[in-house]
Write a structure and sequence with these properties.
Chain B: It is a multi-pass membrane protein. Chain B: It is found in: Cell inner membrane; Cell membrane. The structure holds two protein chains of two kinds. By secondary structure, chain A is an alpha/beta fold. Helix content of chain A is 55%, strand content 14%. Chain A is elongated, with a radius of gyration of 28 Å. Chain A starts with a helix and ends in a 10-residue tail after the last helix. In chain B, helix 2 runs antiparallel to helix 8, helix 4 packs across helix 5 and helix 8 packs antiparallel against helix 9. Chain B is built from nine helices and no strands. Classes of the chains: A alpha/beta, B mainly alpha.
Chain lengths: 499, 229
Amino acid sequence: MRVLFILLLWLVAMPAAARPMAEIAASGELRVGVNPNFPPMSSYGADNTLGGFDVDVARALAGKLKVRLVLVPTEAAQRVPFLTAGRIDMSMGALTITPERAALIDFTMPLHSEAMGVITTSRTNITRWQELDRADITIVNMRGNQSVELLKEKLPKPQRLLVDGNADTIRAIAQGRADALVENVDFFLGFTRNYPETQWKVLSDPIYVAWCAIGVGKGNDSLRIALDTALAGLHRDGTILRLWSKHYNAPMTVPVSEAQIEDAGKTIVAGGSGAYRFDFSDVLGRVPYLLGGAVISLQIAFLCFWLGAAIGLAGAIGKLYGPAPLAKAINVYVQGFTNTPALVQIFLLYYALPDAGVMLGAFTAVVIGLTLNAGAYLTEILRAGVASVRRAEIEAAQVLGLSRLGILRHVMLPHILQTVYKPLANFFIILILGSSMAALFGVEELTGRAINISTVNLRTIETFSVVALIYIGLTLIASATLAVIGRHWFRIGVKRVAA
Amino acid sequence: MIERIVAEAPAFFSSANLGFVLAALGRTLFMTFVGCGLGFGIGLGLAVLRRTQAPMLAPARWLAMLWVETFRRIPFLVILIMVLFGVQPLVPEISLIGIATIAVTLVATAFLSEIIRAGLESVPRAQVEGAAAMNFSAWQSFWLVVLPQSWRVILPPAAAFMVMFIKDTSLASHLGVVELTFSGKILVNRGSSPVLGYGIVLLGYFILSWPLGRLARMLEVRLAPSRNQ
């Protein structure tokens, strides 16, 4: 009940969480959000601790503020939400200054520049970035990066592939899922070393230059001013450029100018209290887009259910009536798949199979993965149903001269369905919910679309509340439909079919 | 592909990497056990609450039902994201694994409460009435009559649920909890072959899940209620 109470409390008032400088100094700790998968900015080194440019800058800043540095792994899409939540005091990880972000958080002076170039391979024969504007080109990008929106204006024609992490972008190009990445070349080039066989090509003429700064909580002026003062010192004594060269093995393409350092001292951010206000307007306008995603979620669930049921029926019959080696093989399949997570099975299908020359699209990989997983579980469920058919009934049907197919259709299936209808209906609901993991592979089903929306409007709680309601509605409708079908067609006196 | 795996294997199976994966496996176990343990406790409370009949408690019963029905109809991934963004403004100090554990608790409470309720209802009503006739208080009849008989119905599916949830916690990797799946992701992003990186993760889950699943099934066989009551 306490959790429920906390949830209610949170619904009533979302407190301002940003810690002012005095509180940080008193606690003796500065909590800095850095990306755990972003070399050479920050990543886990061979000793499994975080290191990189951001980490060194953060350490220098903490030193100037005379507090201890606490690093908080923060994925790209969570850089702003972690700040607004007060989980971290400042956010790094190449946080580009944008108006959308400035509405929710405050920025220090620029830390470094971000010159947008193109990383591609010898497969594409382009020499200038403008040549990328073709419909047969696929540009990969990362959810939550501001370049996603900007590119829609500069390069409207190419197709887009959205992935979850920095490393995934380069992997997608190496595996041939995408042709090019338009991003800050410096940030992403490090990953190309993982794919030495690919002939990488870099077009470094900048499409545009953007500036990255350190993010702090909205209205947390005391911390922002303290950081600006410290940063100005690090810029002027050359520490920033030195650290950049150390980690990138090259100077910063466009360094931060003295004018920008001067300017930061003068900016006074107007008002802006730290209190969070709910704003559902954006997500409510996108409900049709979300419902479109729900249709894709249902498609995945349907496909995986029927394909899985076919595997399951074959598996159940094979296990019960097949020769011993077959039954053993089926058992290995069932144990293997039911004792490991579907998510990791799909990771293997999606990321490891290309090494063997088999390239699956995200949707296909998810459907195959979930189908194999469902097949294993359904083998177990259907086995109970098949076992409920008594041998005597089959023998009686044989005596009556029914064919093998006829026995299956007229004697076994009705029996099996009677026994397993309820667990099958439950499993279908589980599949609807399970299909949400497709989002982690860039499939734009319900959850995927929610992530798309929330990384742009930064209204995660609002967006996901609406999405949760859609899932509840979806599963309620599915449960009710299944209960009606069960009662009418299979005479199953189910009062309620629940997940 | 095979050559790459063979070439990488000696460096991959270094003690540093194995220790890293082992620590991550510990976090997976922690989330599952603590989350399902708390979920069992709260779920028991909800199940008992839903059996009460006092009109005063009607709104509480209604809320308990709402909780159970809601959290069984939202994907775990969505719950994880909502807990992440909902809880940290209130408790900014909480760790990511703490957040994942809260999400596990919320879901486990909903599912386990239904399992417990089915178990409690498996005890024939006549026994409760008999206890009442013998002047047992409601508490005595619950503690001395209903609960001892329902354990054998509750424990096997509850154990099976927990074993199932070990695998569902892999979604916590999306938050950045360095659990088993995320450890594989880090190894692969550092340049290891995906077959090795995710293969060792699959093996880790199997080592956790298979023996526990066997244990749950043994429990089921040993506790199976006799059919001739």
